[in-house]
Amino acid sequence: VVIHPFKTIELQMMKKGFKMEVGQYIFVKCPAVSKLEWHPFTLTSAPEEDYFSIHVRIVGDWTEGLFNACGCDKQEFQEAWKLPKIAVDGPFGTASEDVFSYETVMLVGAGIGVTPFASVLKSVWYKYCHDATNLKLKKIYFYWLCRDTHAFEWFADLLQSLEAQMQERNNAEFLSYNIYLTGWDETQATHFAVHHEEEKDVITGLKQKTLYGRPNWENEFKTIAGKHPGSRIGVFLCGPEGLADTLNKQSISNSEADPRGVHFIFNKENF
């Protein structure tokens, strides 16, 4: 059990014969909390890792019970045998393996929908490090939309470590990401602007600056289309229905009639 800031815990588990794909989820039961309740959680580990993990935000009775059952409310280190028994059912869900069948992808995670992308981004990077020449995927544009990053501090940490590893390998270009704080506007953000000249973002500690408000999707699609002429670009969303409509329309309107032109393929159901 790993404790992250803002009342989020990560459970790393091992189970004989457990096999997962990116973007899948499991049902979890903790009999010490409730003998009947099963709760779905998106897997945040990559298939390449020797364990599977979920991140749980403490927001209600059951999660509070799990937090206490795991001894997270205690100061001293908890021995493994003291941890509660956990039952796992799954994994389920359509595999988002399609991410690997494009050279260029746009990944959009909104709010809690950012969780499956932890698995996707880690897996892509493991594949890249292991055998970059056979990996079809060459470029990821990642958009993260959230009201504030507090609940996902662990995700910002993951992006930070990916960013550092990519720089070490001189391939910072592989992943471009944009973080949009939708609960903010420029006026609230002005007092951060003083620090905006610093190398790292003051909110996330990442090199990429945090943006405020919502993306201008038309501009984003046009810019990406301009950079990758004549290619098929996969657009993957995990987020609300309204955003799905917007991205679907943009994918259609920015695809060229000419089969040799640029085409955006929208894949919402894959997550």
From TrEMBL:
| UniProt entry keywords in alphabetical sequence | Cell membrane, Electron transport, FAD, Flavoprotein, Glycoprotein, Heme, Ion channel, Ion transport, Iron, Isopeptide bond, Membrane, Metal-binding, NADP, Oxidoreductase, Phosphoprotein, Transmembrane, Transmembrane helix, Transport, Ubl conjugation, Voltage-gated channel
All copies of the FAD-binding FR-type domain together span 1-98
Annotated compartments: Cell membrane
Do you know which InterPro entries this protein is assigned to?
A: Cyt_b245_heavy_chain (IPR000778), FAD-bd_8 (IPR013112), FAD-bd_FR_type (IPR017927), Fe_red_NAD-bd_6 (IPR013121), FNR_nucleotide-bd (IPR039261), RBOH/FRE (IPR050369), Riboflavin_synthase-like_b-brl (IPR017938)
Q: Which GO terms describe its cellular component?
A: monoatomic ion channel complex; NADPH oxidase complex
One of the GO BP terms on file: superoxide anion generation
Which GO terms of the molecular function aspect are on file?
Answer: metal ion binding; superoxide-generating NAD(P)H oxidase activity
Membrane topology term reads:
Multi-pass membrane protein
Among the Pfam families in the record, one is FAD_binding_8
Per its UniProt record, the required cofactor names are:
FAD
Reaction catalysis annotation: NADPH + 2 O2 = 2 superoxide + NADP(+) + H(+)
PANTHER family in the record: CYTOCHROME B-245 HEAVY CHAIN, NADPH OXIDASE
User: Any idea what job this protein has?
Assistant: Catalytic subunit of the phagocyte NADPH oxidase complex that mediates the transfer of electrons from cytosolic NADPH to O2 to produce the superoxide anion (O2(-)). In the activated complex, electrons are first transferred from NADPH to flavin adenine dinucleotide (FAD) and subsequently transferred via two heme molecules to molecular oxygen, producing superoxide through an outer-sphere reaction.
- Name assigned to this protein: NADPH oxidase 2
